[in-house]
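Two proteins, back to back. First:
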Amino acid sequence: MRSPRSLAPPASWDVTGAAAGPAMTVLVSVAARIAAALRLIGIGYVVLQVIIWHSFYTASPWLLWAPAVTAGWGALAVWYLRRRPLRWPLVCLDSAVYAGLAFTASGCVPLAMRGQPGDWLFLVVTTQLFVPAWFAPAVLSMPLGLLSVAGYAAGNASVPFSRDAAGSPAASSVLLFAVAAVHWSAHRMLSRRASRADAALAVAQAQAREQYVILSRNLERREQDRLLHDTVLNTLTAIARSGGAGDVTARCRHDI
């Protein structure tokens, strides 16, 4: 019979390096897949925006450096996330890269779209905010998210934008902050539920181990009683009847 410990899934680790239970492991795995999907969406949107505004980038080809860096880094992140969740040092690096892009790449967005929720820079920053909220330690998740938001706000404040647009860079920055807050709140809520589920599972496994120990002891005791009845008692009965004949002595030796 296999013990409950042997039936449990192998131990794993969460994004902070602490031991994680099955529920937390599944949550981190799903979050990694969602992050990879969001990065793919961001890459596709960047390519689409470059195609739509090809005249803007054809007039100044050097402006393509920002979309190219964004797409390349996003593809690298997707490749990594498809294999394992991001650990916090890589999350810090990823946030620094996107904060730098948000600050320096505003001028690479067409003027009519600059600072609007529909521009490609806004979207890629939005998709990046999922990563620090879900894969950074609690003490770093909100500061890292605010770093990208601040980079976007400062970058748009340093370049001209269209006054005739429906929105403003300030409103877009507020919207980014709201997105970061939603990701952070959702992570905390789901992580607490996963932790409670893992705690309940740990209690159930502990109780199962206790029951297994009791069952094992009962089986061992029954086996000892069976051996006592089938060997020692029968041998003693034979000794009492025969007076210690040679075959009885050999049987005693065998039983011992």
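And the second protein:
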Amino acid sequence: AHVHGHPAASLAIAGVTGTNGKTSVCHLTYQLLAAAGKAPALLGTAGHTLRGTTGPVHLEASHTTPDAAAVQRLLARHLRGGGDCAVMEASSHALVQGRLAGMRLQVGAFTNLTREHLDYHRSMERYAEAKARLWDSVLPGGHAVIFGTGSVSDDMAERALVRGLQVLRVTLEEGGDLVAHGLRLDERGACFGLRGMGFDDVEVVLPLRGAHNVENALVATAIARCMGASSE
């Protein structure tokens, strides 16, 4: 970070963790931030997209989350190209291995936790603890966007509160800070009402199939709002 001039200090950055949905959430967030007039970077499984002087620069990715030095190098390049924000995937392996070391995120997001990578983490408890390390990289007073209800989401929220973060719950049922209600699914995608975080029962038509993509879109919307995108 020091070698590259601490680029994270000059960028608004969101990190997304969870077993499923990281890639989709990051791509949706990237598109929302771009539509809001910002100049985002995207770091993730399907490749990295940075701001360049003549347009977006696309780079291949060997890992979901690059190593710590590569992250700083990529962010510095994005900043030189005129970028002002970034969204990145944070895998559990990356969090345990310190690939977010030196990062200061404005927003962290958690999608879900299902049985995977137990060959590495050995237990679901250790896997959950690895995901919770994301909160260590979020600035005090920053936002923790957490999808769903239940013991795992509640535990992640409690860990974020202990770190001094502002917790935002995103749900498909009442009681969340951002809620999708009246969900209707068909071959075209999903239709639902959006309520909370500046939305007053806005009707949304999402051209992606499946309730899981509604979940992804909700998390992306909450992240974008936390990073300064208007509700419009």
